[in-house]
Amino acid sequence: MEGNSVNIDNGSGKSGGSRENRISCREGRPPNPLAAVYRQCLNSGNPLTALSCKKTLIRHPSLVKTRTLDISVEELSVNDCEAEFVPIFRSGAWSDIGARSVMEDVLVFVDNFLHDYGLKNSEQGPCAFYGDWFFLDLLAKLNDDHVWNLPASIKMLEEFNAKELLRFIAEDEDFPCEIERAISSAFLQTDTAFVEACSLDDDLASGTTALVALVIGSSLVVANAGDCRAVLCRRGKAIEMSRDHKPVCSKEKKRIEASGGSVYDGYLNGQLNVARALGDWHMEGMKGSDGGPLTAEPELMTIRLTEEDEFLIIGCDGIWDVFMSQNAVDFARRRLQEHNDPVICSKDLVNEALKRKSGDNLAVVVVCFQPQPPPNLIVPRRRVNRSISAEGLKELQSFLDELEG
């Protein structure tokens, strides 16, 4: 695709016997693929969009309290630069149905978030938004009579979740001054809107993991609820910007048990293999008005981008089942050095995951922060001080004397 064109193929294309979803934006800033949906309400007959037409923004109850949200925010310190680095966004994405019968992953990327959502330009610099959603149990819930309409159901949920989360962020009074708080609020409000929308149609009751990355100026904020992962490449080194929320993790297991849940055979309450997610209100014992073992509260990580930061990889769990974080960075870096195209790089990652026999849906977003490809890294040779013992000197002198004789 050329210029600012965006191509989204929902399972119609084929490659190696599997359907692919292509999202191309090789140069410049692409238009928002869901812009038309965001700017206007869908037909009133759609139960999901009937709720999203509300113009007023309701703050989540947990944010009305004066206490600070109990949210993990990790600050990664970097060396101060003489001039603040301003990233130039180039993004691309690729997805494949993989070994699954239905594609349950959705990718969203907006290289000009402020412009596309009618916000005033921020003095902090350019702003971009990227996200990955994976729907957990929609296929398992639907019976055989509904499977034929599953792609349409997933598409409806994709649009609803992406639209609501972005809208809540954009309309939050704390954004962009308090980015972490605005994103956390958006997650919780989307979770509440999710249950209200799905209650209008029992067939749509499900849950989704969510990972979003928001860049404002030189600040990168990643919010995660689930097992998608974001990895930053800083001069060839992988920096994990999220933590996989598995029930077996000690921190998550402690929180789950404190909330009245349990971890059985690696699954939350013996049902889910993630400890955080949006939705899933229909599952007994997971969520309630007073909380529960399954939470939609995201874990946040913030970092200041520098000239050493080259690109960001956002991938679903199917990618990380067969890639270690550093392995993925090394692989993507070599590909970008060859062609410097984030779209092709995303495709390369997906195809490599297929070769490695990943058994899940595959979805990747690659975001480059600079126009040039990653540079070759030159590892300086360490000077080694060598010495010889007195005994060695005697043996060497004896050997030289024998040669002269």
Description:
The chain has a single domain (13-376), classed as 4-Layer Sandwich (Phosphatase 2c, domain 1), CATH 3.60.40.10. The strands form three sheets. The protein has a seven-stranded antiparallel sheet with strand order 1-2-4-16-15-9-10. Strands 3, 5, 6, 7, 8, 13 and 14 form a seven-stranded mixed sheet that branches. It has a two-stranded antiparallel sheet with strand order 11-12. The model is unreliable at 1-20, 22-81 and 137-150 (pLDDT under 50). The N and C termini lie far apart (79 Å). With 405 residues, the protein is an alpha+beta fold. Helix 6 packs antiparallel against helix 7 (179-198) and helix 10 (325-339) packs across helix 11 (342-355). The chain has twelve helices and 16 strands. It catalyses: O-phospho-L-seryl-[protein] + H2O = L-seryl-[protein] + phosphate; O-phospho-L-threonyl-[protein] + H2O = L-threonyl-[protein] + phosphate. This is protein-serine/threonine phosphatase. InterPro entries: PP2C (IPR015655), PPM-type-like_dom_sf (IPR036457), PPM-type_phosphatase-like_dom (IPR001932). Its cofactor is Mg(2+); Mn(2+). Residues 1-28 are annotated as: Disordered.
Cα end-to-end separation: 79 Å
Q: So, CATH architecture? A: 4-Layer Sandwich
Cα radius of gyration in angstroms: 25 Å
| SSE ordering | EEHHHEEEHEHHHEEEEHEEEEEHHHEH
Strand order of the largest sheet: 1-2-4-16-15-9-10
Task: Report the β-strand fraction as a percent range.
Answer: 15-25%
Structural class: alpha+beta
The major β-sheet equals:
7 strands, antiparallel
CATH homolog superfamily = PPM-type phosphatase domain
Number of domains: 1
Q: What's the level 1 CATH class?
A: Alpha Beta
Number of strands: 16
- Per CATH, what is the topology? Phosphatase 2c, domain 1
Mean pLDDT: 75
* Estimated helix fraction: 25-40%
Number of helices: 12
Cofactor: Mg(2+); Mn(2+)
Organism: Cinchona calisaya
Family: Belongs to the PP2C family.
Pfam families: PP2C
